Amino acid sequence: MGYVEDLREKIGHQPLILVGVAVLIRNSNGQLLMTQKPSGDWSLPGGLMELGESAEETGRREVREETGLRLGSLALYDVISGRDQYRKLANGDEFYGVTILLDAGDIGDVQAEADGCEAITLRYFALDKLPSRMNPRIREAIQGQIGR
Description:
The chain is an alpha+beta fold. It has one domain (3-128): Nucleoside Triphosphate Pyrophosphohydrolase (Alpha-Beta Complex), CATH 3.90.79.10.
């Protein structure tokens, strides 16, 4: 069982602050790698931080799990947080998300493969043609800051 599941056993559905990491990975054409979740939503590769992990370790672990890619250095890109990151899930769990965006830069044309569980499909998207079914705050951060 993971950190969040252990907490939920103790506190039930009460709101938590959950820290996640999402990683921007670009190919040689400048397109951004996105993962499609079983829900049909698209996101950057990433996931929740476990106890004792740094943001960089979380990003590398999640990318490796979802895509098979092994990343080198990562740079801080942005942090998304605030009241509008509140979520209440269908099971009643409530949380405020803090998402740390890390930038892996251009990885060239390395092949990645979806794990079939957390990521059912991987696809590169042009920055001006990101999928509609994704977190709007992440879209704003990406489109507002790429090329800065």
